[in-house]
């Protein structure tokens, strides 16, 4: 359950910082670095980052940023697939049955 709460918190934070960076871009203030935004995505905030990107139309026209973002998504999918394939992660890890 702690893993789930950590995942949700990380995605909420990723959503907030991406939305905040969009706000900073609108008012032409100092921005949050792409490295920071991508780091949040890489450590598990991919869903939150993606939602904010598409809701606020932020970074959606930056091809190089999108390339890096989708590369992170691809690597995460590969890692999760390998964890399931080799039995390191299974349904019991995701949903604890009583």
Report on this model:
The protein is mainly α and 98 residues long. It has one domain. It contains four helices and no strands. The chain is elongated, with a radius of gyration of 15 Å. The chain crosses the membrane at residues 6-25, 37-57, 69-89. Keywords: Membrane, Transmembrane, Transmembrane helix. It holds the Pfam family DUF1294.
User: What oligomeric state do these chains adopt?
Assistant: single chain
How many strands?
0
Topology order in helix (H) and strand (E) letters: HHHH
Helical/strand content category: mainly alpha
Sequence stretches where pLDDT stays below 50 over 5 or more residues: none
If you compute it from the alpha carbons, what radius of gyration comes out, rounded to the nearest whole angstrom?
A: 15 Å
Helix content percent band: over 70%
Biggest β-sheet, characterized? none
Distance between the termini: 13 Å
- Give the averaged pLDDT, no decimals: 91
Strand content: under 5%
* Tally of contiguous helical segments: 4
What is the overall shape? elongated
Number of domains: 1
Pfam family, one: DUF1294
Transmembrane segments: 6-25, 37-57, 69-89
Keywords: Membrane, Transmembrane, Transmembrane helix
């Amino acid at each position: 359950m702690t893993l789930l709460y950590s995942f949700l918190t990380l995605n909420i934070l990723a959503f907030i910082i991406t939305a905040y960076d969009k706000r900073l871009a609108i008012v032409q203030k100092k921005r949050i670095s792409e490295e920071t935004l991508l780091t949040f995505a890489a450590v598990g905030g991919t869903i939150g980052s993606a939602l904010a990107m598409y809701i606020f139309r932020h970074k959606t026209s930056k091809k190089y940023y999108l390339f890096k973002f989708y590369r992170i998504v691809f690597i995460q999918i590969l890692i999760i697939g390998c964890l399931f394939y080799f039995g390191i992660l299974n349904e019991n890890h995701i949903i604890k049955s009583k």
